[in-house]
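Protocol step 4 of 5: obtain the predicted structure for the target chain.
Materials: sequence only (see below). No template structures provided, no constraints applied. The aim of this step is simply to have a reference model before the mutagenesis design in step 5. Sequence pasted as it appears in the construct record:
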Amino acid sequence: LEYEEELSAYSSVLDTEDVASSEGLSITTHDVLSEPDGNTIKVQFISSANTGVQPCVVYLHGGGWILGKKESYTRYLSFLAEAGHPVFNVEYPLAPEHPHPQILRSTQPH
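Step 4 output (structure tokens):
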């Protein structure tokens, strides 16, 4: 519990308008059912209102598959969206509660 509180405090420092403005961006979160494990993962979509058809970025946050959360990177990824590259910021289930290879299978497109 202490670790989760510390991680939440760390994330709240990173996810502020001081890091990067969200003005002009659309930031939405979607629940996606992952196959074959049936996990529900959250995928955040960050895009600019001015974006035409552009290559996108699929981002899996760091943390060695055991820690971290996608919200820690929203503001940093906003820079890519502002440059016209929509971003799919993917949450994934963490170990040890979700052992290998479940994490990888949860993030594979189907």
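Step 4 remarks: The chain has a mean pLDDT of 81. The radius of gyration is 15 Å.
Proceed to step 5.
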